[in-house]
Amino acid sequence: MRRKIVAGNWKMNKSFPDAEELIAEIADKLESMDTGHQDVILCPPYVYLEMATDIAEDSVFSVGAQNMNENDTGAYTGEISGPMLTSMEVEYCIIGHSERRKYYGEDHALLARKLDAALRNGIRPIFCCGEVLPEREAGRHFEVVKKQLEESLFHLTAEQFQQAVIAYEPVWAIGTGVNATPAQAQEMHAYIREQVALKYGESMASETSILYGGSCNASNARELFSRADVDGGLIGGASLKADEFLKIVTSF
């Protein structure tokens, strides 16, 4: 049975003391919660990863990075590699977030190499896909997502793909306060699962966790997560407040 997942993407937020306080508060409150049926992942900025993994040793959450370089070593000033993340016991990495695509020009081919780098270093990728508003309005959202899957993700072997988590993020809903309706989310999640089935088979598709990432918060998470193909959320702004994030965690 596929896992339910709530992952918090902090983006570029929080000072060191604030980050430490937030992680500690989440860890403390998770102790009294029943999370055996799901995975909780925190993805803080790079500079807080070691602190997060240290706290995670005595807690039930896992730690993920927000990005990584496609190379394992070399003269790439300012970059972070898979071996570096592995050495800090980072278990997950977000690959292909729409902000990376938009602001840093990450294309399908580059994201495919990043996925390869994550997997060869034992890191589970959370692969993001989704359409921008003009693509949605033009009725091209399925076409866009299919291309993202085919050109970045579907080169993986079945064994490799088994380690991947997919996050659908309607780009028009990220940070805007406007989220896709539960019906829209379910429609795209079902379509993604259908594409996985066509490539890797029904069994693999039924085991693949597909998260929703577009202005998901404590007030709408329960309705979103109640849909058959929505297995949790990749949470942005709402992950920066412990109480709101944990309300999302308990929305299944």
Question: Which features characterize this protein?
Answer:
252 residues, alpha/beta, TIM Barrel, eight-stranded parallel sheet, 12 helices, 8 strands, 43% helix, globular
Any idea what the CATH architecture is?
Answer: Alpha-Beta Barrel
Q: Quote the distance from N terminus to C terminus.
A: 15 Å
Main beta sheet strand tally, sense and closure: 8 strands, parallel
For CATH, the homologous superfamily is named as Aldolase class I
Specify the structural class.
alpha/beta
Question: Topology as H/E string?
Answer: EHEHEHEHHEHHHEHHEHEH
Write down the CATH class.
Answer: Alpha Beta
The low-confidence parts are none
Sheet with most strands: strand arrangement:
7-6-5-4-3-2-1-8
Mean pLDDT: 96
Which helices and strands, and how do they pair?
Blueprint: E1 4-9, H1 16-30, E2 38-43, H2 49-56, E3 62-65, H3 82-87, E4 92-95, H4 98-104, H5 108-120, E5 124-129, H6 133-137, H7 141-153, H8 158-161, E6 165-168, H9 182-200, H10 202-207, E7 210-212, H11 221-225, E8 232-235, H12 242-249
Parallel strand pairs: 1-2, 1-8, 2-3, 3-4, 4-5, 5-6, 6-7
Helix pairs in contact: 1-2, 1-12, 5-7, 7-9
